[in-house]
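input
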Amino acid sequence: MVCQTGGGVGIALFSVLYKEAVGKLGWRLGLQAVTGLLSLAFFLPIVYRSANLYHPQRRAITHLKNQRKKSVKK
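output
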């Protein structure tokens, strides 16, 4: 997740991660470890659900948003 905060930061962190993984685990296991981490970084946000879905006043908030949209269209 930290690697996705920005282009420059992501490139800097990924290159260090890649170098350490390949250096310590060897090229085959290092690449598998990096692939596993990148797969987690891709699939975990898919199952993440925003906290506002569980908000106790979710219906009221949605109603207010819809009312605001209707008033803007007029």
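quick obs: Residues 22 and 30 are 4 Å apart (CA to CA).
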